[in-house]
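pls design
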C-alpha cells in the first residue's frame, strides 16, 4: 500500500511559470519520495513547456482518477482539463482565457481534496489581472479558496524551516495596519493560530508576538501600541494558558524563532514577516493557508511573466511547497 499522500497541484496561469516549475519539481526524486503529485492543467500547455530551453523531459501520463497514477520519478500525472488553446496562452501575456483556465484548475483541485481523493493542494502562481479580465470575482488564491471551501476568514501563514509565521494584518496600508492592532484581534488570531498548529501536528506549540515599534516602543517613547494593545493581549493569553511571549523586537524575534526558541511568530503587518523570511530563504518561504477544511500550500512568488517560456524559472519553491504539504497532510487529515 502506497502511504505517500496525494497532493493536487493546479497548473496556475498558463502564460506564467507554473507549468515550468511543476515540471522541474517533479523531475526531482526528493518530491516523489514523500508525495504522489497529480497536476490539474492542460495537456497542450504542459507539452509546450517541456520544449522550452533546459527543461527536464518527463513522461506525461493522463489520468481521470489520481489513484490510477504512475507515481515514479520521471512521470507527470495529469488530469487534463483541455480548456485553453495554445494561441490563447502566450507566455508572459495577460489574458481572460488564462484567468478562466487558472480558476478552473483550482476549482478541480479543491474538489479533489474536499471529496477525500487528495490530501492537500499545492498551488502554482496565478495572475490577478488575468483573473479580473476573466470576471473571476476574487482577487487571489486566498479569496478563491475561502469561497470554494466556505471559509469566511482563512489565515495566511508562512512556513520556513521549522518556523511558522502568522500575519495579524496583510493587504492593507501600513497606516491602516497600525490601526488594526487591537487587543481583541491579537487574542483571536493567537487562539486560531494554536488550533492550526495543533492541526498540523506540532507538539507543545509556542509563539512569540513581534513588536510593532522600534524596541517595542520603549514603554511608550516610540509609540503606544505595545503598551495599550499588545502587552495586554499577551498577558490575557498567558493567563488563559497559552504559551505566548512578547512583544519581542522585530529585529530579533524571527532570528530567535529560526534558532528554535518558538514554533511560531505573530507578525503584526504584511512586510514585517515577509522581509524576515524571504531574506533568509526566498525560494523556500512557503505560504500555508490555515483555518479551512483543507490544507493548502503555495510558492510565494508570482507568475514571473518576464521570464515565462524561457525555461529559467527555478523549481525550488514548488518542490518545497509540495514537501511542506506532504509533511503536514497526515496530521491535518487526522484532525478533520
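designed seq:
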Amino acid at each position: 500500500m502506497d502511504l505517500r499522500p496525494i497532493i493536487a497541484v493546479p497548473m496556475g496561469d498558463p502564460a506564467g511559470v507554473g507549468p515550468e516549475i511543476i515540471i522541474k519539481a517533479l523531475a526531482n526524486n526528493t518530491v516523489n519520495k514523500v508525495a504522489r503529485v497529480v497536476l490539474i492543467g492542460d495537456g497542450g500547455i504542459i507539452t509546450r513547456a517541456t520544449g522550452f530551453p533546459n527543461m527536464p523531459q518527463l513522461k506525461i501520463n493522463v489520468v481521470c482518477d489520481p489513484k490510477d497514477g504512475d507515481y515514479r520519478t520521471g512521470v507527470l500525472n495529469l488530469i487534463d482539463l483541455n480548456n485553453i488553446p495554445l494561441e490563447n496562452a502566450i507566455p508572459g501575456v495577460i489574458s481572460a482565457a488564462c484567468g478562466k483556465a487558472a480558476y478552473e484548475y483550482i476549482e478541480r483541485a479543491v474538489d479533489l481534496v474536499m471529496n477525500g481523493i487528495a490530501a492537500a493542494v499545492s498551488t502554482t502562481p496565478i495572475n490577478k489581472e488575468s483573473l479580473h479580465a476573466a470576471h473571476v470575482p476574487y482577487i487571489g488564491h486566498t479569496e478563491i479558496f475561502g469561497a470554494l471551501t466556505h471559509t469566511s476568514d482563512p489565515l495566511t501563514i508562512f512556513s520556513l524551516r521549522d518556523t511558522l509565521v502568522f500575519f495579524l494584518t496583510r493587504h492593507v496600508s501600513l497606516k491602516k495596519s497600525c490601526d488594526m492592532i487591537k487587543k481583541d484581534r491579537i487574542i483571536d488570531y493567537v487562539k486560531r493560530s494554536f488550533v492550526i498548529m495543533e492541526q498540523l501536528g506540532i507538539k507543545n506549540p509556542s509563539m512569540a508576538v513581534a513588536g510593532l515599534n522600534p524596541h517595542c516602543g520603549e514603554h511608550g517613547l516610540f509609540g503606544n501600541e505595545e503598551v495599550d494593545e499588545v502587552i495586554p493581549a499577551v498577558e490575557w493569553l498567558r493567563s488563559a494558558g497559552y504559551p505566548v511571549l512578547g512583544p519581542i523586537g522585530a529585529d530579533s524575534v524571527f532570528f530567535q524563532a529560526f534558532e528554535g526558541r518558538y514554533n511560531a511568530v505573530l507578525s503584526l503587518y504584511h512586510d514585517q514577516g515577509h522581509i524576515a523570511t524571504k531574506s533568509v530563504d526566498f525560494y523556500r518561504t512557503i505560504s500555508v493557508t490555515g483555518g479551512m477544511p483543507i490544507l493548502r500550500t503555495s510558492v510565494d512568488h508570482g507568475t514571473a511573466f518576464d521570464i515565462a517560456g524561457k525555461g529559467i524559472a527555478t523549481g525550488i519553491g514548488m518542490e518545497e511547497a509540495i514537501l511542506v504539504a506532504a509533511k503536514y497532510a497526515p496530521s491535518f487529515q487526522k484532525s478533520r
